[in-house]
Design goal:
six-stranded mixed beta sheet; D-Maltodextrin-Binding Protein, domain 2; globular; 2 domains; 13 strands; about 40% helix; alpha/beta; five-stranded mixed beta sheet
């Protein structure tokens, strides 16, 4: 009788354990067109969401998306293992202390400044071109090497909000700041077009090589190291181009 009871319990709990082991919990923040909420207000959407869903499916995982989170909170969740991983993460020494990075990034990103169309500057060749600028950016986000090196020669005003780009763009249009900084030219292009401001601004690349973004996994997650190994193996085997997902998003701007 005890044996029958034990077998019955195993049949009940094993599917639950299997489902748990085949789920990866990913945190995300708002960074259109890569990461955002769909129009229904509940479904995660964007190029990075769709891309990782496809990769995770090849890995044999279902994805549980947690967010959207303020960027500082996402970093905290990655530090303590509340989430297993995240997308669109640049690499730096501090983050490498608590995150597993795969060998290969999945996309290059070019840092830019967004200026008003009537601004006389049409090219940035050195910090002298933007010395004294007041620049809007996202609180808690990383700075590219150029901006970090010259942060004492420009004033950066930070905003803690999922709508940081939109708020900064409004400040730009009101002449309250000189430029909006973004590490991702695609995001700047997308947001300007979405907000019907693409004919009112110019987007200038900063004089530095592109950075790269990665899928990362928390070192505090019990699954972190295993996920890194599985992701790295799958990444080499699949034929998915992140740029295709980005182009789809840009084509669907309403």
């Amino acid at each position: 009788m005890k044996r029958i009871f034990f077998i019955t319990i195993c049949y009940i709990i094993m599917p639950c354990l299997s489902a748990w082991s085949d789920t990866v919990k990913m945190g995300y923040f708002i960074l259109k067109p890569h990461l955002y909420l769909a129009e229904d207000g509940t479904t995660p959407a964007g190029a990075a969401i769709e891309y990782f869903n496809a990769v995770a499916s090849k890995m044999g995982y279902k994805v549980e998306w947690t967010g959207p989170l303020p960027f500082p909170r996402l970093i905290k969740y990655l530090r303590d293992g509340t989430v297993d991983g995240a997308q669109m993460m640049a690499k730096n020494e501090e983050r490498e202390l608590f995150l597993y990075y795969p060998d290969s990034p999945y996309s290059p990103v070019q840092s830019v400044l967004v200026l008003r169309k009537e601004h006389p500057l049409d090219r940035i060749t050195s910090v002298n071109d933007i010395k004294g600028f007041v620049v809007g950016y996202l609180s808690g986000a990383n700075l590219s090497p150029f901006m970090k090196q010259h942060s004492d020669q420009v004033k950066i005003e930070y905003i803690k909000s999922d709508t940081w780009f939109e708020q900064n763009l409004k400040k730009l249009m009101l002449n309250r700041i000189d430029a909006v900084y973004d590490q991702n030219a695609v995001t700047a292009k997308y947001e300007a077009k979405r907000l019907n401001a693409d004919d009112k601004v110019r987007i200038l690349p900063l004089p530095e090589p592109p950075n790269h973004v990665y899928t990362v996994f928390s070192k505090q997650s019990p699954k972190g190291k295993k996920l890194l190994e599985q992701y790295s193996k799958t990444f080499k085997e699949i034929d998915l181009k992140y740029e295709d997902y980005v182009e789809k998003e840009l084509a669907n701007i309403k």
